[in-house]
Known about the structure:
The chain is of the alpha/beta class. The chain has helices spanning about 25-35, 40-45, 65-80, 85-95, 105-125, 130-140, 145-160, 170-190, 210-220, 240-245, 265-270, 285-290, 305-315, and strands spanning about 10, 15, 25, 55, 60-65, 195-205, 225-230, 250-255, 280, 300. The strands form 2 sheets. It has a 5-stranded antiparallel beta sheet. A 5-stranded parallel beta sheet has the order 7-6-8-9-10, sandwiched between helices.
Amino acid sequence: MTDSVIGPALDGGLQLDGLKQEELFPIREVSRMTGINPVTLRAWERRYGLIQPTRTESGHRLYSQADIEEVRSILGWIERGVAVSKVGKILAKAAVVKGLPSDVQAEGSLNEWKEWQAHVRRATRAFDERRLEQLYGQIFSSYPMIVVFQDIFMPVWQEFLLHQDKFGQASEWLFLDNFLRGRTLQRSQMSRGTAGACVLLAAIPGECRELELWVAGLLLGTTDLSVSVLALGQPLEELSLVCEKIQPQALVVYSNHPPADDLPRRLKRLALTLDCPVLLAGEASGLAQDSLAGSPIACIGSDGRLMQRCLRQFLAGHLDT
């Protein structure tokens, strides 16, 4: 039997009485939107507790937009090579981080961000750079940089990235990616040289995309801390040479992939060759934290708010490795 629904349809979704007119979707529609078959969606709920859809009185599942975003997030982790049994732990950590600070994550703000995301999505699908530029200016005038990139633009960028197999979305993603890379480079050049202390940011080769690295550099920087982003493809083994020349206050290594088995050994060996501390950031940071416990490598997460705070605490000597 297929899942049925209660209430009138709204823009392809459904409404359930008593749930504040929230837009809800049956499992077959969620399957169509995400490409995940209903059997797998049910397994993620029953076996791993990854999703908790609303139930009708007759027991049929109804998914909110937040549930759908959670499904896409789960899919993104699995496509990166993380076992589905481990995804729940990652999502739980992300949920805690997103609660910092609570005043930023108010429900009203989340709704506003989703509206801006919808505008960005439409402008991208129309390949309308003028409109995208206009939106970029409006969003930047309304929110701090962390919200602009992490909570508005990057989720849309990730959405197009994950669906490049659909006709047209590869071109749409490239259009948005090119636009945002230009703006992050511009923003980085504007802030360069205004701060005293310098931190180097380098990606583990092949483990993140250029825009992710540039955004991380912007979010890590402060008025008194300049972040210099090294080119994508920078060999990990040659970072000691670069640090010897530049003499940064710290080196941040960045990765959004599940850590390889030899990553802790490589990072520990790198730390021995440097005169500055080494930190690991990005999605790999949370996954490698246990294997790096007790080492000189500090893990500072992937959320912009948490990364910046942990970096400052570490440099001030208040963060344990």
